[in-house]
Amino acid sequence: METTVDRRHEIDLGQLHDAILKLRDGDFSARLPADWTNRAGTVARVFNSLVTMLEQLSAEQIRVTNEIGTLGELGCQAEVFGVYGSWRQMLDGLNRMAVGWTVEMRRTSQFAQAAAAGQNPAPLKSEFIGREIAQMQEHINAMASKLAQKSD
């Protein structure tokens, strides 16, 4: 009597290898069969959920950097639910950067508007982002101060 082996209980190393290579190369279409059972099914579900999470993280990172860095739309935040550990730290870091840029650019814009209207706004001081942004704000402060002196 011949018995058939249910291959859904076994991890197909060829499929696993191909899916891992796709994921490594940034191809988020990589998935393992959902009909695998037992330990193979657990591996497939975990792998597939990891790919989905990475796909969502990637999409949000691209969206936020495009909105802020290319379109100049401030105030956006990345949202991916169910991420923990280092993945959460990466997402939170992206959001902290977005907040810092938003606050500093809006503050600088308000300062420039007030100075252009002939008001004497309080000097800018970067709170979230240092170095080049702080230097830019120092230059703007100096320019506004010179303009105020000329108008006196």
Unreliable sequence segments? none
The pLDDT mean sits at 90
**So how many helices?**
4
Oligomer: single chain
Q: Helix/strand-derived class?
A: mainly alpha
List the helices and strands and how they pair.
Blueprint: H1 13-24, H2 38-70, H3 85-116, H4 132-151
Helix pairs in contact: 2-3, 3-4
Note the main attributes of this structure.
152 residues, 4 helices, rod-shaped
Question: Can you describe what's shown?
Answer:
This protein has 152 residues and is mainly α. Helix content is 64%, strand content 0%. The longest helix has 33 residues. The protein is rod-shaped. It starts with 12 loop residues before the first helix and ends with a helix.
Briefly, what is this?
With 152 residues, the chain is mostly helical. It has helices spanning 13-24, 38-70, 85-116, 132-151. Helix content is 64%, strand content 0%.
